Amino acid sequence: MEGVFACTRKERLTARNGSGYLSIELRDRTGSIPARAFREADFLAGQFERGELVWVSGRVERFRGELQLELREIRRADATGFDPADFLPSAYRDLDELDGFLEHLAREVYDPSCRRLLAELLGDAELRAQMRVSPCTRSGHHAYLGGLLEHTVAVATLAQETCVLHPRLNSDLLITAAIVHDLGKTREFELGAEIALSEEGRLLGHVLLGQQIVTELASRVDGFPRETLLALSHCILTHHGADGVPARRFGSPEALALYRLNALDAGVKGALEHGLAAA
Question: pTM of this prediction?
Fold first, then answer.
């Protein structure tokens, strides 16, 4: 076989006889395969780095019951013109359908200010496109292209149902917060041969980035109430828990609800994808 793949693992190992060899993993959107090179391992290792696209040629053989590629050649490939979707896993659900659900959930918000903020979000073509392609994590729950949109729709749906069960909750605040809580993930990752952290993601993280994006959206809405922005910001900043806030507690029932609902979807999805030990 030969072709262009993403290199998602690269290790220099030692065989039982003491000789060194190169062990890597290659991936495209159909899956992954381990590959090894026993000849010229040091030379081949210098031709590329983990996380890059590589051109490879070799022979597929069965080793201990599993397929692996015995490498003849491997070198860094020109990434120009390649789509990350060719090498990264994608959402199982139809993204157009998920987009439709997102718009439906936004229509369930009746507070004029929150409704206009969501209109700014839905009308931002670039941000909408980023939501469709962004993952939620690098290797945990929803770790695939479109995972952010899928997770957002799930958490917002749970929020809507929770407000039916608990009508004293501010449904406009909770549903809006559910829709925007992970917007920071549109800036947290860089997509290429693998899902990597952006510089913003490494230094700030998606929680703070998300609060910044919502503040930007609110600034486009004339007269957006300061108290509403504070309430939304609090929900975003505490959706992984209240430990990071000064008083170390949730400031509203809606913030607590969002934290629980986010954890519910992430935990269940993680268990379904990776087993109960990962939940």
Answer: 0.82
